[in-house]
Amino acid sequence: MTVTLEHLTPVERTLLVTLSGRAADARTSRPLLADGLADTVSSRLSHDPVKLSGTVRIAVAVRSAMLDRLVTRFIAEHPDAVVVELGCGLETRMHRVSSPITVDWYDIDLPGVMALRRQVIPELDRSHLIAASLTEPGWLQSVPRDRPAVVVADGVLGFLTEAENRQILRAITDHFTSGGELVFNAYTRIAARLMGSLGVLRSVGIPRSCRGYGFDDPHAVEQLNPQLTYVEEVLGAQAPEAAQFAWPTRMIAKLFARWRAQARRGVWVVRYRF
Question: What is the crossing angle of helices 36-43 and 15-26, to 10°?
């Protein structure tokens, strides 16, 4: 039985972009991420095809793998950690990352998205689903405060305003008393301004007028919340998966890797400590 998405808003439907990218990657002969569950979940949904270029498919798979590695490293160092996935959509990260039974995983998204998630993604032990808006107070109240936390976001922060990002980041650092890390994919200012012009987003209903939140210097996030300390940026052009690209894409990635500012226009993941 297929599941319809008629109840989702255009912003909520952006979950199809990352899901479709991971599913398309899984169907290739040499997948970069090999997320077979994403392909299974995608096949259960009834929706118009997402206009997904090969570049977008590669970008989604690479940034997912990059975020997976950062989460994996954190829970290896903190086996009593909690993982908090902001705007989880139909993300299957918990199924991809092998974590000890001492790690609790909290997936957070809007009520309509979480209702869909419950229908199509099997829940694992120590998985906790929270139906809430990140811009409303109280969305963290059921998450333990006194354990190390890694907060991960794939895409969602870029769709919010600067004020909303400031509010969310403050809620994170105020909540966790044992500290932790924040990892997410970032957008440059020009990429954020042009967000609404991307065909892949227009195909799920995002208007051309859409403008996201972006920055060119990762230290800009510290200005939003001084409780965050910038640790590192990871560029897709330098990711291990780049070695598997077709030679034209691999050559472009090598050129981008020489100019950090240019490489940030591609897959760009940032890490902060709090």
Answer: 120
